[in-house]
Amino acid sequence: MELTVITNLVYLLAAVLFILGLKGLGHPRTAVRGNLLGAVAMLMAIVVTLVANEIVKVEWVIAGIVLGSLIGGVLALKIKMTAMPQLVGLFNGFGGLASVLVATVAIIDAVTGFSMGKAVTGLVQRLGGVAFDPQFVVATAFSAFVGGVTFWGSLIAFGKLQGIVSEKSVRYPGDQIVKALVFVASLVMGVLVVIEPSNLTYYWILLGLSSLLGLLLTVPIGGADMPIVIALLNSYSGIAAAATGFVLNNTILIIAGSLVGASGIILTQIMCKAMNRSLANVLFGGLGGAQVQEDLG
Amino acid sequence: MDLVSLITVFVLAVFLGFEVITKVPPILHTPLMSGSNAISGIAIIGALIATGAENSTVSTVLGVIALVAATINVVGGFLVTHRMLDKFKKKD
């Protein structure tokens, strides 16, 4: 059998295990098994990717995995139970960072004439020369945008719960307008990246704007609402991973990413209901914070 | 795979994601969030491809940073979820 066929079959099996794992995590009796199924699926996807992609720089791959496992393992095992929500927020930020960096490597490689892998079609042959593949460019810009918001938003969420950043709902007059302007500016920059991918300046500005948006969206939210925000950012990191899947033409990234993206939204809604909050209120209103201030005043 | 097949896979997975989570008891909210966060560490696959390709120094360096970040997300995510669920068991 061809290697790509085997790879995609293993990816399919991993996808099935991810689905069963997520389903299991939602019920008390099956939660532990669900988590293990997810871990097994991840391991399968990693191993088959290493085998199928004829990885050249093995030493770098090993170094990265060992270092990441050490840091992740120590953090997960040493942290106090009370500090777990912010740790999840921090881990989520790292996931978003990974998506951003992969998109960045992909576009740098494409601009400098390299290809990131067999399945990646950054540049395609067109009449009159080589051109950027529209799917590749749109997905790269989208991944950079969502990943940037996820990374910086998660860092702020972590900082608020850890007490590094003010837990209070930080608000100022016209903050909604500032957020809207930065959002529109990032959309414009995203379109410019799509129109002219070879000019990396647009891409760097897009990264800067999405990072700023991540900060602006999270700073105004009070500490009590942070678990909801982390659940939402978790959904975003899934969406970023799915976008990266479209950059790399990789099915397991698309499936696992969109599963987390969609289920994360549902979980966010469930958590909002449990805390008697509406999502719009948490994100834009900050009514809880305002009410407290009025009561104090 | 062509774009239409990829979009098909994407849309079906989104629907599945919406359906797979139903009636989660509050005590499982945080572990579920943590577990699905570990799954979103699937970006590690992209990081592996980015690091492994023999391209420029810049892309290798960025790839390795991506790989470290994604591995922290995956390993830490599954471990911390396991710890959370372990605590619930002892309470029963």
Automatic annotation (TrEMBL), chain B:
Membrane topology: Multi-pass membrane protein
InterPro entries referenced in this protein's UniProt entry, alphabetically: NADP_transhyd_a_C
Domain of life: Bacteria
GO molecular function, one term: NADP binding
Subcellular location: Cell inner membrane
Main location: membrane
Catalytic activity: NAD(+) + NADPH + H(+)(in) = NADH + NADP(+) + H(+)(out)
Transmembrane segments: 6-22, 34-53, 59-81
UniProt protein name: proton-translocating NAD(P)(+) transhydrogenase
